[in-house]
Amino acid sequence: MGEEEANFLVPTDAYLKSGIHIGTKFRTKYMEQFIYKTRSDGLSVLNVQKIDERIRLLSNFMSQFAPEDVLIVSRRENGWKPVKVFGKVTGVKIVAGRYPPGILTNSNLKNFMETKFILVTDSWPDRNVVMDAQKKGIPVVALCDTNNQSNYIDLVVPCNNKGKKSLGLLFWIVAREYMLKRGIIASAEEFKYTVDDFSDE
């Protein structure tokens, strides 16, 4: 663990404290590859190293796109605050709450938007945007818990996608990494936000 841990995006403690690795009692076939063990209470525990690897992949992938070409969608209420703060900090487009049908596919709509990259906080409640993205050939990254399916998802980021603290930490890391990789900030020290700014208590 030692050497790998040294390369983590945040100290292992930060991951563990946020509960980002605590899954659900249900596990889908697809998500089994990310599960480290099942606890005595039946909850599946995700592999922290795999979570870290996938957050890194997400950050690298997203940073290829300018903020105006990125859309983040969260139907789940616990994702609203981190997503809104992420939008404010990075300038990407967000939908927190109900996804308005057709905004990606119907150019006659007043709120129609063009986008090249989509991140959803949960592939099930956010399935309408996932399906629209598929029609348009837009890559989709989804935060997936142990009970999620991976249909139509280009990259799965395993994590506890229901907890406020875990979503806050994840979006905080990705905001920092995105801004670093895009050259918006020159060093991690320049990123003045805290994890608490991204998460509800």
Report what the structure shows.
- The chain has 201 residues and is α/β, with parallel strands linked by helices.
- It has a single domain, classed as Rossmann fold.
- The chain is built from seven helices and seven strands.
- The strands form two sheets. Strands 4-3-5-6-7 form a five-stranded parallel beta sheet, with helices on both faces. Strands 1-2 form a two-stranded antiparallel ribbon.
- The longest helix is centred in the last third of the chain and has 18 residues, at 164-181.
- The two termini are 30 Å apart.
SSE inventory with pairings:
Elements: H1 2-6, H2 12-18, E1 35-38, E2 44-46, H3 48-62, E3 70-74, H4 80-90, E4 93-96, E5 117-120, H5 127-136, E6 140-144, E7 155-158, H6 164-181, H7 195-198
Helix pairs in contact: 2-6, 3-6, 4-6
Count the domains.
1
H and E order: HHEEHEHEEHEEHH
Overall structural class, as computed from helix and strand content, comes to alpha/beta
Which outline best applies? globular
Instruction: Count the DSSP helices.
Output: 7
- What order do the strands of the largest sheet run in, or round the barrel if closed? 4-3-5-6-7
Number of DSSP strand runs:
7
Helix content: 25-40%
Main pleated sheet = 5 strands, parallel
CATH arch. level architecture:
3-Layer(aba) Sandwich
Going by CATH, the homologous superfamily would be Glucose-6-phosphate isomerase like protein, domain 1
Radius of gyration: 16 Å
Averaged pLDDT: 95
Kindly identify the CATH topology.
Rossmann fold
CATH class equals Alpha Beta
Portion in beta strands: 5-15%
Distance between the termini: 30 Å
Uncertain spans, ≥5 residues at pLDDT below 50? none
